[in-house]
Amino acid sequence: MPPEDASNETIRHFVQTAHAVDLAAWLAELPQDLAQEQILALAQPRQAETFSYLSLDVQAALARRLGRRELAEIVTRMEADDRVDLFNHLKPEEQQRLLRDLAQEEREDIRRLSTYAEETAGAIMTSDYATLATSMSAHEAIEVLRREAPEKETIYRSYVLDADRRLIGSVRLVELILAGTDTLIAEIMDPDPMAVTLDTDQEEVARLIARYDLTALPVIDEHGRLVGIITRDDAEDVMQRETTEDFQKIATVIPFSQSIREAGKSVLYKKRIFWLALLVFGNLFSGAGIAFFEETILAYVALVFFLPLLIDSGGNAGSQAATLMVRALATGDAALKDWRDLILRELTIATALGATMALIVSPIGLLRGGSDIALVVSLTMMLVVIVGSLVGMSLPFLLSRLRLDPATASAPLITTISDVVGVLIYFSLATSILGP
Amino acid sequence: MPPEDASNETIRHFVQTAHAVDLAAWLAELPQDLAQEQILALAQPRQAETFSYLSLDVQAALARRLGRRELAEIVTRMEADDRVDLFNHLKPEEQQRLLRDLAQEEREDIRRLSTYAEETAGAIMTSDYATLATSMSAHEAIEVLRREAPEKETIYRSYVLDADRRLIGSVRLVELILAGTDTLIAEIMDPDPMAVTLDTDQEEVARLIARYDLTALPVIDEHGRLVGIITRDDAEDVMQRETTEDFQKIATVIPFSQSIREAGKSVLYKKRIFWLALLVFGNLFSGAGIAFFEETILAYVALVFFLPLLIDSGGNAGSQAATLMVRALATGDAALKDWRDLILRELTIATALGATMALIVSPIGLLRGGSDIALVVSLTMMLVVIVGSLVGMSLPFLLSRLRLDPATASAPLITTISDVVGVLIYFSLATSILGP
């Protein structure tokens, strides 16, 4: 990217030669009037491609600045799925205006693609795919692709349809090339191609594409007719977004889709305050536990010394278990059916962790408060680590079982639960061992 | 996958028709003697493909059970990069035995590919790529690909080399098909293909492939000679592994590569105890702070009620900021150079969060301890949320600056730091407002 004080010459060279991704990244940092000027100066089809790489917020902002014809031209040249994403991001009156400015074909395509529910296969598919018929020869098929290729998102895999547009096979470009020119498509196609339906969850789509290493995945309607394909790069974007959401959730941030640099301060405030405030009420239970044992605390004030250490350790062990589980469930490394095995195993690991932590903390207990306090602190440490770990390991499974997102088992939530349990264990043990 | 009590017929059907990925997943769950039997019964090349999809631990275990000739046959048919991964996972004496059993070509290929440092482009590249010369026509080029295709990992992009094997261009299969048959490769190739060197970090490779949506990325040596390519699916595996590592790190688990179901109990224990134990010493500072203010605590024991709430809130706000930053740095949403902007913005957001939290907690303070305690608690809440957030936002930048992994700024680490600061703020304010 050119530096801020680059000469006009340097900028011109960059604009002409840079990859559209890099060009878009640079435009996103410019003031909007300059970005608009640069976009309009680009040659087609570089213009539409660069525009597509901008974030939807920036695309929408620029769409509002561009002339109606300028916008319609860019939108017409965008890929079908990118076009719909922008359309869905505009206000209703802007959508209507844009539709009026487009040719019938694009208009109908947008109308169709924009009707599907968010986060489904229908919402992320594109209509730019190549189709063949069983009766074509490999040679004829290659001719078809040669004609249509520049407009299609991928021709590495083509789809074979019957007269009713039902999906009956797929062929890889490699196979067309390897086949003799007279070989019929019917002979070389895969007659049982993997496909998803319009309402398949986008995360499931992304997982299939990654698992089976697919170039694209066809989408069929309830009659088995091909209605779109999902390309690998779009599936990867979905996967990346879902992973970012998991990071946000395990840190008790309500998911947001903008990049952290583009998200406004008030957006970030709102996404963060909800759980922070909610957990206050969880912590009041810890406070109530402490209030209940005030006599014990006054009698043995040295106990307070160990309070942050004990409750944090339980929370930390729990966060470890929860985060490992959340990730394993997201990648498919573990499934709901594994819960019994994994929790039993966690019990062994947590006992070992708890015993080690008890050993570490016992000499400190001895030094600070004598043998009785050391006993209370060590026992509590052992128990909070075990309880924290088990809660951390179980909660993602439980949420998943209830069809909620396991990533809601965030580190702060586990910590708060462990705190309450930890306070109760600590002061109960103290009261019964040290006397009230 | 067939159920555990499936009939032989069902199993036979599954083994014959399932995708190699699914077959491998099923084999991994079988006892090793049965898995070995099933693997040996498979036809080539399905055998090698299925074997490649097993985890390296399972591959190595099976390799030890198979006969020398059986193993050599499978290994010969594996893709070059998978072959080397298995080789690197074997014990030295097993490596020597395997090398002796292979033909010269595979032996040399393994020797060459296994020499590169872990986590570099050299370590994840494959030698199965197609090459062309500038003087070939598009027609000749397609003939070359037709001959070589079945053995190459991808022919969607071929690489153009000069007489010294220096990389001077690349051509996409689509372009070969679109070009007239007599067009020379020199005319249609991209004369400036993106490439990385042998020592490029694998994460950088994965980021380039994702950013520029590449099918494969060539690797060149110090003389500009092509030595391998990295395919998209391998880059995605790298990305997925690195993301899993980030999850592990932000939960203070030392990264491990096995799936959570395959990792042994003692492995998990070792990966988790390190930070748990280390943070004990961090928490001793909180304890020391508390010990220092023991007089104040004895005079106002109601203060202990709010202790878990206050230190947790600072830790939670800090974990939010840290986790958002770690992810943004990993995806490239934010870079080191953005630190000043982002930290200034965080100051505003954290002040708003702190003020809200102070408002929420003040009536509780009033109820539990009167107006003075309410003042101390509210002020402390405000400050710990601000300090926690700023530490959480800055630490990933600082680590990144020091060329350490920003993901080391784990939630538990931030919580421990916030705790120490929180204890000191809380009791200092209490002592000065309530009197010692």
TrEMBL record, chains A, B:
- Alphabetic keyword roster: CBS domain, Cell membrane, Magnesium, Membrane, Metal-binding, Transmembrane, Transmembrane helix, Transport
Chain ranges passing through the membrane: 273-293, 299-326, 347-367, 373-399, 411-434
Q: Which GO terms describe its molecular function?
A: magnesium ion transmembrane transporter activity; metal ion binding
Cellular location of this protein? Cell membrane; Membrane
Domain CBS per the UniProt entry, residue ranges: 125-187, 189-245
Topology of the protein relative to the lipid bilayer: Multi-pass membrane protein
Summary of subunit composition and partner proteins: Homodimer.
Q: Give the protein family.
A: Belongs to the SLC41A transporter family.
- Sorted alphabetically, which PANTHER family does this protein's record hold? MAGNESIUM TRANSPORTER MGTE
- What is the stated purpose of this protein? Acts as a magnesium transporter.
Q: What is this protein called?
A: Magnesium transporter MgtE
Q: What is the lineage of its organism?
A: Bacteria, Pseudomonadati, Pseudomonadota, Gammaproteobacteria, Thiohalobacterales
